[in-house]
Specification:
- It is a single chain.
- This protein is mainly alpha-helical.
- It has 2 domains: about 55 residues, Orthogonal Bundle (Multidrug-efflux Transporter Regulator, Chain: A, Domain 2); about 60 residues, no CATH class.
- The protein contains 7 helices and 4 strands.
- β3 and β4 form a beta hairpin.
Length: about 150
């Protein structure tokens, strides 16, 4: 099958198939005499595997690790489980960070009158930049600090 058919069968766009191939993650299809890629069912299965792993939020490096385990018939399921548990821990940490960001933004939105005046606590907070470092290079203001600042503005 050609790349379009492989894309349709796997649920991975042709562009992503080419990208995965370029980084050594996706299948290396045989080339026809015309130079076009030719995919088989094994290639499609690998692409579906990649798509599902990405849908679950696995990074490309972890997908690579999962593919290696999937291909290794001597693997230990404990290795797969450990990788999945590590990913769960990462997702939970990201969820806490996102929840904190939502809380901060809700407080800022609540402090904003949303009227015709130019004063805006949201923009003032962004401009002040009084944030503390959070994991992954993101920034987060402590809730207590933010509440004190909003109280002063009122």
């Amino acid at each position: 099958m050609n790349i379009g058919e492989a894309a349709q069968a796997s649920g991975v766009s042709a562009r992503m198939i080419r990208y995965y191939e370029s980084i050594g993650l996706g299948p290396r299809p045989v080339r026809r005499d015309s130079g076009y890629r030719a995919y088989d069912q094994v290639d499609v299965q690998r692409l579906r595997f990649i798509r599902r792993a990405r849908d679950l939020g696995f990074s490309l490096d972890r997908v690579r690790d999962l593919l290696a385990l999937w291909s290794d018939r001597q693997r230990h399921s404990s290795d797969v489980k450990a990788l999945a548990l590590a990913h769960i821990a990462d997702l939970e940490a990201r969820a806490v960070e996102l929840s904190s960001m939502v809380e901060t933004l809700r407080s800022l939105v609540g402090a904003c009158d949303g009227d015709d005046r130019p004063a805006c606590p949201i923009l003032e907070d962004l401009q002040a930049g009084e944030n503390t470092a959070a994991p992954h290079g993101r920034t987060r203001r402590s809730t207590r600090t933010m509440k004190r600042r909003l109280a002063r503005q009122r």
